[in-house]
Amino acid sequence: MPKVFGFVSLSPKAKVMWVGIAALVILTSSVLYVQAYHKLKPVYEVPTDKKIVALTFDISWGNQTPMPVIEILKENDIKCTFFLSGPWVKQYPEIAQRIKQDGHEIGSHGYRHINLSNLSKSEITDEIAKAHLNIKEVTGVEAKLIRTPNGDYNDQVIEAIHDSNYEAIQWTTDSLDWMNPGVNTIIERVSKKAHPGDIILMHASDTCKQTQESLPVVIKNLKEQGYQFVTVSELLKEAPVKTGDQDK
User: Fold this and answer.
1) Of 104, 109, 132, 203, which one is the catalytic site residue?
2) What b-and-e string marks burial along 171-202, b requiring 16 or more CB atoms within 10 Å of the CB?
3) Is the pTM of this model over 0.90?
4) 213 and 142, same structural domain?
5) Does 206 participate in catalysis according to the annotation?
């Protein structure tokens, strides 16, 4: 009777079984690694040597912070990208319309401010569609860019976004203004971390108490560093053409 301890002492049938199990483990691990490596990603930045950055603002709550931010941008002749949540647009249509009137780009920040990765693909698509409709009804804009609530995503979320004819936009420089860490902290983070092709995350919701005070200095510092401000869509035009896309 063969011993049960040690591969060498196993019967030929048992050896075949264990070899099969080992091969299955290796194959499964390889598949998981490939899936992780090829995970779908949103756009975080655009590779470029040009000193351009996209300043972006998410808005989901309130009407006190947005207007001061809008006025600061107008005073500095800057156009940026606002990601607006569907319910907020309906609640404060005059502010959303002012953003459009001032020539800023309008993107979607989804409908409910929840993690989309917890939803089914059809539910994600529905969230995107409801926000899209609100934005279009209030501003006339057919939004094409979306920043997911909390920046949350997985492969299914990105697939649903692309299926909805949107592009997912993240950021590389987080101002942390949503944490209200102090005006100087916000200024220093953005001023030091900004780089060519950067997408900068800021907020204009009422929960962010220090954005409007830090924004003028952020703009001043970046201008002194030689940066120009563009919308996200303008930044995306600087992206290298992918192989096979040249003839499209």
Assistant:
1) 203
2) bbbbbbbbeeeebebbbbbbbeebebbbbbbb
3) no
4) yes
5) no
